[in-house]
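Internal ticket #5521
Category: modeling
Description: The requester needs a full-assembly model to guide mutagenesis choices. All entity lines are attached below as received. Residue total reported by intake: 366.
Assigned to: D.W.
Attached entities:
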Amino acid sequence: MEADEIWSIATPEAVSLRCWPDGCVFFDARESRTLMLSCAAGEILASLRESPATAGELCARLDRSGLDAHSMSDMLSGLAEHGIVRPLN
Amino acid sequence: MAGIRSDIDQVAEGIRTLYADFPLADEDTFCDFPVEVSYAGGLRRYLRPQVIFRFEGMQPFKPLPGSQAIAMLEWGLNWVFTNHAQHYLIIHAAVLEREGAGLIMAAPPGSGKSTLCAGLALRGWRLLSDELAMIGLEDGLLTPLPRPISLKNSSIDLVTGLPGHPVIGPVAHDTAKGDVAHMKPPRDSVEAALVRVKPRWVLFPKYEAGSSCSIDRMGKAATFMGLLNNAFNYPRLGQTGFESMSRLVDECDGYTARYGSLDQIVPALESLCRREL
């Protein structure tokens, strides 16, 4: 993964997200798929729904999440493996 | 409204016993769900009779032994409502009401859900349904469907012995689920069948012989996923299903319960619900 890679939700028009204190529920209408994610993953997706961002920008936006750039990159890779996010460039 | 056609004595007896408090429509009334339980034709009818269930020309199940006719009617009606009431989010759950607040007990078969449902109904909780939580997509309210409560195997004797004068219908022996019988819904519940209810609690009960009783709070995301695992038509509803489920979870407190007897769980549950009302 490149440090300046810009990330986006894979299908933003099809995605719904609800977050509660014990986790977030992600729904992809295109694939009729519902997943429970961690709160941190939910915060990342909520932020990416606002606008695409690099891992560093996400760290800055989600300052309170406690994720460093390395952890953020790992989270994004994990979400990408599930087809939830994708790099734009 | 369901219209039931049958030429089987056991079905007539079962309806007379289990649906005694339901209003009867006259023959000219439009019927939403016309179903039929009848003997299969041919020589089998005399040698080893089998029964078949039909709905609008469809025969969704294989024939069953004649002695299982009333159970087949109940299973068939469950199938009809589950597959043809798509203006609801439908969850496999028992639903009861106390003081205007709805309790949804969602669980897979074998969890003791129906036995607990019968125990609560016999203690004055209003029965909305033993099998199907029907949540309106527009308003999120629970629509009652107070049909008989399905009991299996040792639960039949257990519920028969409970206070509250339970009325039990014919027993179907050796079904795919073992022995099956149904408890007549309380008259008050039938008479209030048009009164919808706001959901307040979601409970995932689990009976385990010899277990002590514990009721634990669940987070809302976990409650969502637990309900999802018991939902019949959530995938079919798409985005609407997600939004409906989210609203339900927002409105309810979620719990898991583990227990070894009705004597443990019923007072514990009543105490919890009283505290939160």
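Resolution: model delivered.
Comment from assignee: Chain B touches chain A through 16 residues (CB under 8 Å).
Ticket closed.
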